[in-house]
């Protein structure tokens, strides 16, 4: 059962946390958004995205006409430049559906009290730690700044597990020290990371593609570790909507989920075609070679610790495993963030999945595509999380 809409006062209060966590819009912008009549006059679901390969299922569904008429408008999904601005639009009801960082979905629901619900996974893997050319070992990051896209992100969670495994300590809002083996973490929009690495103002960044592929092609940095080489087939972005949308338009939510799942299969069937469909000024601003590389990685950029995991491969598999949600909540309790993390203390990791995730729609979508086996899953998908910081 969903609660009442988030109040304007709570939206504005939430903007403090979002802006402090790397938001680009801030309090004034969210206050204006909260004052706008956000009633959806068309009744169609409005889709938002960040210009990264993680968004590909939502975008290919639009490009290939998979959204049924009347469910999603014919206009392109709305592009946002930062996670904070996307989240602000979502909780102020300017958009109804988006791909969102899984830890951020947790923070929105339990930290801000918004009615976010996860419908399924948008993708797995697809992110990496990219470093300056002189960085060889992870220990070389001591005394440097490393950029992350958002505090509430799998990037921050996995990076900190890696740092701790190498005896490094993340610090916030103070300079890193090589002698103290500290690394300063800063939030930066993905589009700013490549030039920051090029001018050596940061030692590295951890982010979704195609920004890692872009650094490789520009020869300004190199991929040090795919996050899928640390946490096997982890979910990064998930497909989200709100409780009120599910209650008010369940048929539309099902149709949209069907379209996204079908798009995932199409991407996996022909990644080069998908790269062409996403680029050229259509959905992603990055050049086609970078997006194509991000979707394929034909040549290993480093010696994988777990080659059998295929850590370089961004996966488009929609089923949301409860084991991942539980392990993520546990890891978030060990992760340093610049923001209010008190809500984590109230969470039972074993119960969060059932409260946050509504997998009824994706289960139906899987059956309509031939069942879980179409995606290489068992009839009743289960798994054990494999996390091995390098």
From TrEMBL:
<protein>
    <submittedName>
        <fullName>ABC transporter substrate-binding protein</fullName>
    </submittedName>
</protein>
<comment type="similarity">
    <text>Belongs to the CmpA/NrtA family.</text>
</comment>
<dbReference type="InterPro" id="IPR044527">
    <property type="entry name" value="NrtA/CpmA_ABC-bd_dom"/>
</dbReference>
<dbReference type="InterPro" id="IPR006311">
    <property type="entry name" value="TAT_signal"/>
</dbReference>
<dbReference type="GO" id="GO:0005886">
    <property type="term" value="C:plasma membrane"/>
</dbReference>
<feature type="region of interest" description="Disordered">
    <location>
        <begin position="370"/>
        <end position="390"/>
    </location>
</feature>
<keyword id="KW-0472">Membrane</keyword>
<dbReference type="Pfam" id="PF13379">
    <property type="entry name" value="NMT1_2"/>
</dbReference>
<keyword id="KW-1003">Cell membrane</keyword>
<keyword id="KW-0997">Cell inner membrane</keyword>
<keyword id="KW-0813">Transport</keyword>
């Amino acid at each position: 059962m969903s609660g009442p809409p988030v109040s304007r006062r709570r939206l504005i209060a939430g903007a403090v946390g979002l802006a402090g966590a790397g938001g680009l819009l801030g309090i004034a912008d969210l206050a204006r958004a909260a004052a706008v009549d956000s009633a959806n006059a068309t009744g169609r679901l409005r889709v938002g995205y960040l210009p990264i390969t993680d968004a590909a299922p939502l975008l290919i569904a639009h490009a290939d006409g998979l959204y049924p008429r009347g469910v999603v408008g014919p206009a392109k999904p709305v592009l946002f430049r930062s996670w904070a601005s996307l989240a602000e639009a979502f909780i102020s009801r300017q958009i109804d559906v988006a791909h969102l960082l899984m830890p951020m979905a947790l923070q929105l629901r339990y930290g801000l009290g918004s009615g976010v619900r996860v419908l399924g996974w948008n993708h797995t893997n697809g992110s990496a730690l990219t470093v300056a050319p002189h960085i060889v070992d992870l220990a070389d990051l001591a005394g440097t700044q490393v950029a992350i896209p958002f505090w509430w992100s799998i990037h921050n969670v996995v990076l900190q597990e890696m740092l701790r495994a190498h005896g490094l300590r993340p610090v916030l809002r103070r300079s890193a020290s090589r002698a103290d083996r500290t690394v300063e973490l800063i939030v930066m929009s993905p589009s700013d990371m490549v030039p920051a690495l090029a001018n050596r103002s940061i030692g590295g960044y951890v982010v979704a593609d195609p920004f890692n592929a872009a650094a490789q092609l520009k020869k300004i940095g190199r991929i040090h570790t795919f996050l899928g080489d640390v946490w096997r087939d982890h979910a990064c972005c998930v497909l989200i909507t709100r409780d009120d949308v599910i209650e008010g338009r369940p048929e539309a939510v099902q149709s949209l989920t069907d379209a996204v799942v079908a798009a995932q299969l199409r991407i996996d069937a022909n990644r080069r075609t998908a790269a062409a469909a996403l680029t050229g000024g259509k959905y992603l601003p990055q050049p086609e070679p970078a997006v194509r590389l991000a979707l394929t990685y034909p040549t290993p950029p480093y010696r994988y610790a777990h080659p059998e995991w295929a850590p370089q491969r961004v996966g488009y598999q929609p089923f949301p495993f409860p084991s991942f949600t539980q392990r993520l909540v546990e890891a978030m309790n060990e992760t340093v963030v610049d923001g209010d993390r008190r809500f984590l203390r109230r969470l039972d990791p074993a119960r969060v999945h059932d409260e946050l995730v509504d997998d009824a729609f994706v289960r139906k979508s899987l059956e309509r595509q031939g069942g879980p086996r179409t995606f290489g899953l068992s009839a009743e998908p289960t798994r054990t999380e494999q996390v091995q910081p390098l």
